[in-house]
Design goal:
By secondary structure, the chain is of the alpha+beta class. It has helices at residues 14-28, 35-40, 43-55, 105-119, 134-142, 172-176, and strands spanning 7-8, 62-68, 71-80, 89-96, 125-130, 146-154, 160-168. Bound molecules: coenzyme A (COA).
Length: 184
């Protein structure tokens, strides 16, 4: 199947993004995130959150989706770094349905977000990932991310997990490696 480049998300994509969000968490995080939390995720609640986010997109916040056969199978979002908003861009989230993984969408989504943030002058990038999400860590390492430390993350739902970060001090290299740069 031809891989269609990511496109910016629209408000009307909120439900489809939420569906991918919840489904991808449920296939990615068993054993990492408590089963009760995963079972309690509701697509309609996430859809409402995404609708709010996409409607009132905070300045500089970007979201891209990828489609197969005109159905959204993945998304990524980013913006200014949450912890220190002046310094660099952050990849906030990236999730694909399991059946759409391994086909280049992940790399294309990271590049789309990095390119859009670079257009805002944010030329370096950070991402936080659960320490025990080893495939995602290997993906970021493959894309040239450098391990940059760890921290506990309180989910606010009665449990705390450890996250690790990866950084790209200059996203130019990430964007120049291979494919065409997506439109910001
Ligand atoms: C992690 C994720 C976004 C990667 O996207 P993807 O579409 O599967 O990855 P791609 O096909 O774009 O892979 C891009 C490159 O990374 C490599 N790669 C991907 N996963 C890898 C892994 N686990 N180990 C080593 N390399 C990996 C691919 O081989 C490919 O290399 P190449 O272009 O040099 O051939 C996707 O698998 C996913 O959504 N996983 C579940 C959710 C998740 O963990 N999200 C991250 C939360 S922080």
């Amino acid at each position: 199947m031809a891989v269609v480049p990511p496109r910016p998300a629209r408000v009307e994509d909120a439900y489809a993004i939420a569906r991918v969000h919840v489904e991808s968490w449920r296939t990615t995080y068993p054993g990492l995130v408590p089963d009760q939390f995963l079972a309690g995720m509701r697509v309609d609640e996430y859809a409402e959150r995404w609708r709010r986010m996409l409607t009132g997109h905070a300045a500089g916040h970007v979201t891209f989706v990828v489609e197969e056969a005109e159905r959204i199978v993945g998304f990524a979002s980013g913006g200014r770094e949450r912890e220190d908003r002046s310094r660099r861009g952050e990849l906030y989230a990236i999730y694909l349905l399991r059946e759409a993984q391994g086909r280049g969408h992940g790399r294309a989504l990271v590049r789309a977000v990095a390119g859009a943030l670079r257009a805002q002058g944010l030329t370096s990038l950070i991402v936080w990932v659960l320490r025990d999400n080893l495939p995602a860590r290997a993906f970021y390492e493959h894309l040239g991310g450098a391990y940059a430390g760890e921290r506990p993350l309180d989910f606010g739902a009665g449990f705390t997990l450890v996250e690790v970060s990866y950084t790209w001090p200059d996203t130019g290299r990430l964007l120049d490696a291979g494919e065409t740069r997506p439109d910001p």
